[in-house]
Specification:
The protein has about 110 residues and is of the alpha+beta class. It contains 2 helices and 5 strands, in the order αβββαββ. Strands 1-2-3-5-4 form a 5-stranded antiparallel β-sheet, covered by helices on one side. β1 and β2 form a beta hairpin. The termini are far apart.
Amino acid sequence: MGCLFCNMVEKKIPTEIVHEDDHTLAFKDIRPVAPTHVLVVPKKHIAATRELGAGDAEEIGRVMVAAAAVAKKLGLESGYRLVINDGDDAGQSVHHIHVHVLGGRRLAWPPG
């Protein structure tokens, strides 16, 4: 079946889309850990941040801009957290780079 998030990007798997443009897709997490929990992925498959190269700067910039647009669209004016997990030990369960947009409540620090 391939990459779960690539299948979502290709609309092979239904998902609750919050934002979409030519380069990114944002959708609600199926296991939210905050009242607002959205994942933003690049449409281009990149497995993890450790695989990023100089040629990916624009793509990742678009992901961050989309994350900010999602936060604004969902009314997270009082603040939100962006999280990127890299690798199994960090909790990355789908190996397609993604940014978690978390908000809707006060978030504690440190997180883990």
